[in-house]
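Here is one chain, start to finish.
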Amino acid sequence: MTSHETRTRKMFEVSGTWTALVTPFTRDGSVDEPAVRRLARRQIDEGVHFLVPCGTTGESPTLTHEEHLRVVELVLEEARGRAPVLAGAGGYNTEEVAHLARELEDLGVQGILSVTPYYNKPTQDGLVRHYERIASHTALPIVLYNVPGRTGCNIEPRTVARLATIPTVVGVKEASGNMTQMCEVVRLVPDAFIVLSGDDALTLPLMAVGGRGIISVASNVVPGPMVAMVEAAERGDFEAARAGHKRLMRLMLVNFVESNPIPVKSAMAMLGLLEENYRLPMVPPSESSRVKIGEALRELGIGAPAAT
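Its structure:
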């Protein structure tokens, strides 16, 4: 391993808040490039540890190949080394994912987040071969993304441990929602392998058993408070971490009152951070959901007053 590769891997051993960035669109449906830049700067200014563009929170399945690369390029230009960039590169076509990973490496990202193949439901051996193939195409660190509720495919703990033997597979975003499974992953992988929560509300419980942070949806809205909660947990100040968790819990939950990223984009629009535009099949939230989102923001003291 070269000295550069060693330094890059070391950066993935740091606990933190990694924001799964939304992708802002204009009213005509195109990528809102100024908003991409503005949102990336906001995250950096508030101390987020990693930027994660073009994951599923970024509506990556609806982005063209060119748009995907362009969004990552914009985030890299804003980051300018101030925060590492972990770009999304996942899907059900192994060869396409491997090719995309190579292109992202050429752009200069620090690593990739690779969701499991969805719909085709590979076996555990198929998952190992899928990630081995991606790793053979890029020297970038790879963070696995396990979200069986969205993909129909679960990376079992012993499979995560097998994948951890691949030198460039450095971590996993665990979004199974199964705390027993998450604890088992932490138990089975090497100490240097970083286990991140994929659910904001489970960040603190996971860190209590050895997890290292969160790839967060909520930090799109409240980056600073999410950073503060994770950093408190990392330094062992669980009293402060619990207080932050309690304060943010309603927002964490309301972000999934409808399919992600519908609620978080709606919340961001309420705060004037972006125009509330989606790409089909994503659509705006129902009125009842919108009320709940507004209430969660007001509870944090950041929303507009309720209509009277």
